[in-house]
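hey
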């Protein structure tokens, strides 16, 4: 089981006192080769997704869709948290994180980017995370499985919305955009697991069950 403790979580825009699962367990280097390979790959993919959503948000602002830009900013924050979580588990395994480059992304119009985001997120839910968990099962390292399960469950929260974005955006983009623009007052992201929501839950994060003080309002882009 993971133990819990207060730590200063740096690396996000502001250092914040939050209650997070302990990831400082030190493992013998090379003891989990398959887990290490999976986590390295996952960390790179999550970081690339973070950069991509930052670029999508910039494009949405340029195209005049601040609400969609805000949604992409929330996604970018969640992906960054997933990436940092994998980085912490790797650090516990003695694996140093190498910088991931913010490469050129395939940036389209906001309509294209929204379709792409829904398609990528659905692929994560249906293919990527289940595949990772299958690979991790062989070595069954608790922390790797826990953080991957968190990441998977955060994406599963939005399955319904993602499917309707994917279904309706190609032919009815303006209606989808209007709905996003008009109906979202705020996005909140759990700093432990990356769960993204529009309302503060009653008692704890629905994904990681950590207390409400870990759920922060994301600032909209300007
Ligand atoms: Fe993710
Ligand atoms: Fe959470």
């Amino acid at each position: 089981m993971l133990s819990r403790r207060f730590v200063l979580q740096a690396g996000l825009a502001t250092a914040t006192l939050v209650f997070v699962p302990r990831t400082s367990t030190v493992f013998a280097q090379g003891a989990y080769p398959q887990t290490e390979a999976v986590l390295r790959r996952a960390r790179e993919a999550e970081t690339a997704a973070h950069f991509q959503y930052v670029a999508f948000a910039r494009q949405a602002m340029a195209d005049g869709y601040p609400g969609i830009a805000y949604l992409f900013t929330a996604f970018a924050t969640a992906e960054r948290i997933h990436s940092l979580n994998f980085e912490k588990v790797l650090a516990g395994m003695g694996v140093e994180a190498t910088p991931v480059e913010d490469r050129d992304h395939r940036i389209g119009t906001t309509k294209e980017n929204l379709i792409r985001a829904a398609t990528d997120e659905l692929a994560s839910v249906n293919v990527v995370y289940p595949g990772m968990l299958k690979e991790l099962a062989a070595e069954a390292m608790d922390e790797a499985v826990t953080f991957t399960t968190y990441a998977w469950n955060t994406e599963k929260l939005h399955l319904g919305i993602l499917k309707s974005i994917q279904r309706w955006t190609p032919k009815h983009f303006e209606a989808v955009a209007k709905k996003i623009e008009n109906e979202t007052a705020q996005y909140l992201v759990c700093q432990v697991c990356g769960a993204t929501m529009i309302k503060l839950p009653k008692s704890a994060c629905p994904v990681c069950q950590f207390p409400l003080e870990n759920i922060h309002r994301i600032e909209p882009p300007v």
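Confidence is low (pLDDT under 50) at residues 1-19. The two ends are 41 Å apart (CA to CA).
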